[in-house]
Structure formats: structure tokens, C-alpha cells
Amino acid sequence: MPRRLRLPSSLCASVALVAGSVAFVAAPATATPPSFEQCADVFPAAELETGQEVSGLTTAGRTRGSEVEPEGFTGTFVDTLEGDDGDLLVFDLAGSRITKADGSIDAGVWSGMSGSPVYAADGRLVGAVSYTFGSFEASTIAGITPAADMYALLDGDAVEAPPERIALSTKQTKQLVAAGASSRELGKGARRIAPVSAITLPEKFAAGYATIAKRAGAPSRDLATGGTTSTDAAPIVAGGNIAAADSYGSLASYALGTATAVCGTEVVGFGHPMDFVDAQRTIHGARTSFIQADGVGSFKMGNLGAPVGALTHDGLAGIVGRLAQDVDATTITSTAARSGKSPATYTTKVPNPDALAELAATHAFRDAVLAQDQMGGGESVVSWTVEGTSTETGTPITLRRGQRYSTRADLAERLGNDVASDVATLQENEFATLDIDDVTIDDTLSSTYKALKVGTIDRYDTASRTWKRVSTSKAIPAPRGKQLKLRINLVKADKYSKATPTSVISTLSVSRHAVGTGRLLIAGGDQPSWDDDEEFSFEDSAPWETDAFYFEDEEDDELTIPEKKPTSAEGVAALLSKQQRHDYLYVSHDYITGSVGLLNVDRKYRQASVVKGSVRLRVSYR
Questions:
Q1: Phi and psi for 499 in degrees, rounded to 5?
Q2: Residue 405 is part of which domain span?
């Protein structure tokens, strides 16, 4: 019996495996895989002997049929690392894409191999591949989560597991080397093998997607160029692929690893957590495309099959899923077209409500880029509808909103912000728990940047019957009981804008009881809600919780407009639907009357371009 090694208490941060450019790698032919029970009995870890040979199953997709059918690999037991967080069995592996035919390292232990079952000679399950060693190059040394810990997940038991990274002391490294491990492959210790955490986006979309994920407070997944999720199911078998998905369809977001055992309708895999959060997700089989040998960052690429069940637990020692269990999912339907071109429509199912805002934003972003065939600026006229149901009362809740955007750069990235913020605000409303059923986005784009801004202001003087220029440093005279007539001149927002300048006539009635000094705000609807360098998230605040929603009124100002906070989930949807549009010019006149007190008069004027800028004026009554 080998001596058991204690895990050190010092831990390093986890290392993310990022997929870069990919290339196909030739591989030797593989032998027919050994046959094992789908739900094999447990081989006690305490009975392992140094040098004991084992067999394993994984899916490398090297030949026709092997993209879903497991192939075999072999291994030799090295030693056991024992710790308060759980035991880790150390093996030296070979075969499949781990090593080449001559025994030299090929891809080593790759990302996505986690969960691959390892069996003793009598067919009992030793455990699941979950860790790899080595810091600077591929390694054949793997850590195995014991089978007993994996099966404990099926019973709902709390299972401890080793941490994300294990730093080995010099003494422990020497002991592993003495037991047969390579000191070069051991590197600085063991790190948990990450599942392939991917979203189906081209590599060029990386920066925009990373920004969206950050704003959503979500982990940024690796980008994987791929098609839509297959409508055909791929089988989930021991040693085969298993994926847990936040979304599937046109835009798939998922973690891909390997199934360890299939026990009736329950599946256990990965050998470590996905996100360590019991989120509502679907499980899928998948077809392996290839294994990318990339040194210490080797990884598996695959295509999801149709959903076949539900993720029921995301625990320290692995994930658990139940086959044939239905999962409710929100449908995102996104249609995007460049002006004058045929539209393209994309559909995605999102079972995880916590990922809905992120994925709605990503959809709007991706589809706009695809429609424009560029990542630049331009103009977008978009509308979206969010439909949900109160889980308590069954009351339907609907938000409908439209918007115009025009920017010199990064147009597509901006499109998703408002959609995602509306979704997040509805989900987080304080009045009712909502199931969001559908999110529909309809976008028409052009490459022309068109923006106006508020320029000069003229007042019509009834005595001279002429327009007179208004000075922002002086109060505008307004006759009580009559009308204040203004001409607002809209000019190009900057030298790059292709918008046509125009003037807007706004006529405001003034009460004969007006007193004191009033104020006048003339503003374009396209006002910045955050600074370019300021961080924000989709859940930062509802629009009625920001000063901008009230034209930045001060609490101690006697002209402050009373807050218009909602009192129900329906009210939340209604206020969100009425948010200001960027292509409106807004005129707001606030003043005090001796008869009714505070009086507010608002006007809005739709324009053919977005309108920026604002002017604040004082009004005196005579």
C-alpha cells in the first residue's frame, strides 16, 4: 500500500483555459475500447497499489463514429494525495489523444476530458479524471476524483473535493517522482481540469462579448465558432460527452466535459463543479469535433445535440443530471437586417433565467454585427418585446419598447445594453416573481451615422413679430396667460454626422397665475447614462431610480417633480416601456402657480435622427 500524501494548505488561484486559434492534429488509429458497465460498482480507493494498471474511456472524435462513442486509454496508479477537502488519486495516463503511438505526449490531459471514467481490471469504477499537472507544457499525469465521491452526489450527500489548485511542496514532489511521476510534468502542482466553457461566437466578437459578460456579472466563456445546436439528440454514455447549457439553439452557451456514469435516468460527470451553483440548465450529449493539442491548454471542441434532460446538481465532486426531465426555457427570437437587405432570424432557448439578460444582449450584439458585416458604427432602429407571467397570480406581463441608436463606432455593442437592462429590471422587480417566456428583438441597421444636437434657441417676440436669440445667461421673459413660442435649432452633432439639420417649433402655454422664476429644459433623448470609463451592470438600477429620469431634479428644489415609482410588476413593465427615445427632442417647463402650486408641462417631438445635447434656461413671468 503506498503512503498517502497530505495536501498542502497553501493554494493558488485557478487557471483559466482559453481556446485560441485551432488546427487539426493527425492522430494514430485507436483500438476498440473496452466494455464497462454504465453504472459500474465502486472500486475502493484504499485498495489501489502503486503501479496498478487501469483502463479509461473518453471521447476524442478522431474517426467517424468516435465523435460520440468513447475510446479507451490506459493508466498506472502513482499515489494518493489526501486532504481535508477530499482525496485525489494520481495516475499516469496514456493512449487516446493523451499520448502518441510512440509514447510521447500528444495533447496530454485536455480541457473537456474531466469526468472521463477510470476502471480497475475487474470493471469496477475507480473514479473520474478531474485534475492535471504541469504548468508550462502538456502532461500525462492526472488527478482522479474517487468513484465513491461521485456516486455520493447521486444520493444528494454533501461531498468535499480538493480545491481548484494544489501547490505541492518539494517533499511531496519528490515522493510522487519516486512513485513514478515525471518531475517536469508535475510542474508547480495540480490544477482542476476546466470543462470546455464556451459560447458559439466567432473569435472577432471577443471584446464585445467580454464587455457584455462583465456587465452581466457572468463568467466570460471561451469563444467557439460553431453552428446551431443540433435538433438530433446525441447519446450520453459513460466516457461520452456531456454538456450543461445556459442556452442552446442559435447561440449556445455551455460547459462541455465527460460523463462518468449513467445510473438509470441519472448521470454524473465532470469530477468537479461547473460553476458550483445549482442553476436551471439543460444537459446535452455532444459530438466531439477534435482535440486541439495546445500544450498546457489543450482542449476539446464539440457540437451540442438536442437537450436530453436537466441539470439537477452542480457540486464540488461533479455535476448530476436527470435524463428525460423537461426544463422550461425562455425563447429569444432575434431578427436583424441591413437596410435594403433580406432579414435573418435567429432563435435560442435559454433555460437558465440568471443568464437571460447576458444572452439577450449578446444576441442583439451578434446579430447586428452579422447583419452589418462589420464591427463599426452606423444607425439602428430596433424594437423589443419581453413577455412574462407572474408565478404567483398567473398575470401576464408585457414590455414593448423601441429605440434608435446612432454611433460612430461600436454600434452593435450598445444595442444589447437596453434590452438586457429591461430584462434584468423585470426579473428583479420587488412586486412579483416573473417567468420570462419570450424575448423578441427586431432590428434594422444601416452603416450611416446620423446624429443631431441641440443648438441655438430662438424666442418669438409678439411685439416685433420676429425671432430673437435666447441667451442662456439671462431669463426668458414669458407673458402670463399667453404662450411662450420657441424655435429650437438642431444642428449636426459633429463633423462626421450625415443628419440633416432642422428646426422644431415648441409652443408652451403659461398659466396666468405663474409666479417667481421657472425653469426650462430642452434636451435630446440620446443622453449618456454612464461615462465611457465608468463601470456599470445591467442590474445597477431601474431608470426611475436615477436622476436622469427626472432631468436631474434636486431633492431640495421646489420645482422637483414627484417620483413616478411603480407599485406593481405591471407598473414596472409600463414605465420601462415609456423610457425616453434617443430620436426625440424633449421640452420640459416647470414653474410655480399661485393657484395649483407646482406645474409641469412636457412636450416631445420625434425626429429622423438621434438627438444629443441639452440647454437649461430660466423663465421669468410678467
A1: -70, 155
A2: 338-446
